[in-house]
Design brief:
The complex is a heterodimer of chains A (115) and B (114). Helices cover 0% and strands 50% of the residues of chain A. Chain A has no helices and 11 strands. In chain A, strand 4 and strand 5 form a beta hairpin. With 114 residues, chain B is mainly beta. Chain B is 0% helix and 51% strand. The chains are: A mainly beta (115), B mainly beta (114).
Chain lengths: 115, 114
């Protein structure tokens, strides 16, 4: 069964450093998402992406964040200058269609630790 | 304010016993409703979803959920749990609009004892 993959599984970085989290969505999917979960808190929506542009973003997704589909298979989340509060599990998801009726398939997550 | 609540942080259940996980939502109109499961080291997997129609929804892995409009609830059930059901379970909602984002509850961790 096709699945969403994410690398790395765990990333440790120093505050102020840039990080790039990588995701490979399911191959025929067109809609991509990032969510995050701070330890002990809810999973929160960050951004959705379609046709090489952001469809929607949350308040969390400020100028420090960016997303990109650099090639036909990868979908990345970049944090320009990490803060301690960016420590969280980051989930990538993809769906075949763009409505909420289309199931979002999630990857296993990348745990980001900012020191 | 719109919200989704899972009142139980952690539930322990014996193998073979029944399981019920609670989910309540607060939205202006009935949203789309989902249950996801996350096993250790795995991504979030969709168990079932409710959009309209029959209020009892069947999902994968023997799970079902019942939508109760009067109680703003969407509780997940399984008649007989297996050790492999030990995982974290998330209720999620999405508004009835062309809106891509899911809003998740805090999750319920299920431990299965032999």
């Amino acid at each position: 069964e096709p699945e969403v993959t994410q690398t790395p599984s765990h990333q440790v970085t120093q505050m102020g450093q840039e990080v790039i989290l990588r995701c490979v969505p399911i191959s025929n999917h067109l809609y991509f998402y990032w969510y995050r979960q701070i330890l002990g808190q809810k999973v929160e929506f960050l951004v959705s992406f379609y046709n090489n542009e952001i469809s929607e973003k949350s308040e969390i997704f400020d100028d420090q964040f960016s997303v990109e589909r650099p090639d036909g298979s990868n979908f990345t989340l970049k944090i320009r200058s990490t803060k301690l509060e960016d420590s969280a599990m980051y989930f990538c998801a993809s769906s075949g269609g763009g409505s909420v009726a289309d199931t979002q398939y999630f990857g296993p997550g990348t745990r980001l630790t900012v020191l | 304010a719109q919200s989704v609540t899972q009142p139980d942080i952690h539930i322990t259940v014996s193998e073979g016993a029944s399981l019920e996980l609670r989910c309540n939502y607060s939205y202006g109109a009935t949203p789309y409703l989902f249950w996801y499961v996350q096993s250790p080291g795995q991504g979030l997997q969709l168990l079932l979803k409710y959009f309209s129609g029959d209020t009892l929804v069947q999902g994968i892995k023997g799970f079902e959920a019942e939508f109760k409009r009067s109680q703003s609830s969407f509780n997940l059930r399984k008649p007989s749990v297996h050790w492999s059901d030990a995982a974290e379970y998330f209720c999620a909602v999405a508004p009835r609009s062309n809106d891509y984002k899911l809003s998740f509850g805090a999750g319920t961790t299920v431990t299965v004892r032999a």
